[in-house]
Write a structure and sequence with these properties.
Length: about 425
């Protein structure tokens, strides 16, 4: 669910995702006359490539350089509110101020708010590719090393945006905003990567009061949910996207606890160093989050070469293991008595308390829980006997509690009868 709707929220494709499944070319006479007039002959319309509740996207040609362009039109009269126009205008301002590799080249913005049918148009480079989301929706699963390389290219763009003057915080990094453009050359299996949709950006030149929540739920960092995004917020979204690519599980299907994504059960097929690396970028507090672009990039490079023994990750794992190593086996078995699935709510706190070095073993225990029911019940009874020996007054308080509950029900019953007879 997107916090602020995009121009083409009802379209099956992203507003800037252009595929070869375009609608056939039509003559100019069949296009909206207002749009044709606004383009002033500088751009030739070819076909519509997307349509949503608030606007349309067309493929066209720039007459000056002969290159294909994307023409995005917002119909302001049909927008639910002017917030859509504000996002559209913000995107135009940001695009006009940047020239970053991996973003679509900006040509110009045209608008006319004085007519009976006000409109706003953005014209930019046409990217002949598909989004990561469309690949995932079609069941595509990327090789591990290819995922690492795609993430590296995405990170390079994010780093350039963050180092831009003024700083650009995208605030909506997700698979549908990452466009892959594959080369026809067989020796280039890794596609070019583009980041699109800059309607949610935050930068000092485009002020919105600092409290607007803009982005996509599931990908937004905790601080972004309260309208205080930082560069670390994009890294958080980047890590969520990485989890999706590596696991095939979208964030809305991943359990959370205390604003933390519980990613371990979804990455059991990978070395734990990968999970630890992603957890460092998913830290709840921005200042604790891994934000060293060089370190992140180098780690992804090593992962792509199947090198997983990395010193800082080993230290992170050992530290988290040592801080949670005081839980006894008896306590664990007693706690796990009623657990049947890793997605159960009561499982979350237990999972977080277990050592980082053992989640794979624990996951296997969950899968074979049916086979050890008798053992678990036995441990549970032993714990229950021990607790009664340590707290002999427990039976007394349990009896008093039951008596109090009986008294409560009696009082309620008497009150109901009184109301009946009174009427």
């Amino acid at each position: 669910m997107t916090a602020t709707s995009s121009v083409l929220e009802n379209s099956q494709q992203n507003t800037l995702e252009y595929t070869k499944q375009d609608i056939h070319k039509k003559p100019d006479s069949e296009f909206d006359p207002t749009l044709v007039e606004a383009l002033q002959g500088k751009y030739t319309l070819e076909r519509m490539i997307g349509e949503g509740a608030q606007g349309k996207v067309y493929k066209g040609t720039c007459q000056a350089d002969g290159k294909p362009v994307a023409i995005k039109q917002l119909r302001i009269t049909t927008a639910d509110n002017w917030r859509q126009y504000e996002l559209f205008e913000r995107e135009a301002k940001v695009l006009s101020s940047i020239n970053v590799p991996g973003t679509a080249k900006f040509y110009e913005a045209i608008q006319n708010l004085e007519t009976a049918n006000p409109f706003s148009i953005i014209i930019q480079e046409y990217i002949d590719g598909q989004s990561l989301q469309s690949y995932l929706n079609n069941g595509k699963r990327f090789k591990f090393e290819h995922v690492c390389q795609i993430l590296i290219k995405t990170l390079d763009i994010i780093k350039t945006l963050h180092q831009h003057e003024p700083q650009i915080i995208h605030r909506d990094i997700k698979p549908s905003n990452i466009i892959l453009k594959y080369s026809d050359k067989p020796n280039q299996p890794i596609p070019d990567v583009y980041i699109v949709d800059f309607g949610a950006v935050a930068n000092p030149q485009v002020q919105d009061g600092g409290s607007t929540v803009t982005g996509t739920y599931g990908y937004m960092a905790p601080e972004q949910l309260i309208g205080k995004p930082t560069a670390a917020s994009d890294i958080y979204s980047f890590a969520v996207m990485a989890v999706y690519l590596l696991s095939g599980t979208p964030p809305e299907n991943i359990a959370t606890h205390d604003l933390r994504l519980i990613i371990e059960p979804h990455l059991v097929h990978l070395p734990y160093e990968v999970t630890a690396f992603l957890k460092m970028m998913l830290e709840k507090a921005p200042h604790k989050r891994l934000l060293d672009y060089g370190r992140i990039r180098n780690t992804l490079e090593q992962f792509s070469n199947h090198q997983f023994k990395i010193d800082y990750l080993t230290e992170y794992i050992n530290f988290n293991t040592s801080t949670h190593s005081d839980t006894s086996t008896t306590q664990k078995h007693c706690t796990l008595e009623d657990i049947k699935s890793i997605d159960q709510c009561e499982n979350v706190a237990i999972w977080l308390d277990l050592p980082d070095a053992t989640p794979r073993k624990v996951h296997e225990e969950y899968q074979t829980m049916a086979k050890i029911d008798n053992q678990v019940l036995l441990h549970s009874k032993e714990c229950d006997i021990q607790s009664r020996e340590i707290y002999p007054e427990r039976d007394h308080y349990e009896l008093k509690f039951k008596s109090l509950r009986t008294l409560q029900f009696s009082i309620v019953a008497i009150m109901i009868l009184c109301f009946i007879f009174y009427d």
